Amino acid sequence: MATPTPRRPRLAVWKFASCDGCQLSLLDCEDELLAVAGAVEIAYFLEATRATAPGPYDVSLVEGSITTAHDLRRLKTIRRRSKVLVTIGACATSGGIQALKSMADAGDYVRAVYAHPAFIRTLDTSTPIADHVPVDYELRGCPIDRGQLLHVLTALIQGRQPRLPNYAACVE
Ligand code: SF4
């Protein structure tokens, strides 16, 4: 009898408020990404595929900050369905440039930018993912470092613990 093929880890990539630059870093990995793609099942990655599987996911990469109530509900669902959640980039890890609105009246910005501000539903703040759900690993930078991303993905796929800088030590 043939030996059953082991199940490949399921990878999902999510976007919240962001410029997509960190997801593009992943796509820029080209050859290395092909090796990763062969080792995982890409279950959700709208930037690159049509895959929209509902989960559960072994690894979720999350780009972007939380700026709407809908974002927040979506994030909580993603967290429930993800074994490991990794935030990628400054938007996800610190709120990004859009977090400037947290220091001012968000309504002023909405009125200045949109022709019909009454249709805009936004929170007063732009906040990092870790403010709302537990995060397993953070990749910082704007955009993230490709080598670091590949290291983390490869380690997680192989069931190893990724080695990342101790960011807390950097600010002490
Ligand atoms: Fe774009 Fe920088 Fe945010 Fe990444 S961290 S999504 S590159 S703005």
From TrEMBL:
The keyword Flavoprotein does not apply. Its cofactor is [3Fe-4S] cluster. Keywords: 3Fe-4S, Cell membrane, Iron, Iron-sulfur, Membrane, Metal-binding, Oxidoreductase. Residues 19-156 form the NADH:ubiquinone oxidoreductase-like 20kDa subunit domain. It comes from the Bacteria. The keyword Thylakoid does not apply. One of its GO terms (molecular function) is oxidoreductase activity. This is Oxidoreductase. The chain holds residues 1 to 172 of 266 of the full protein.
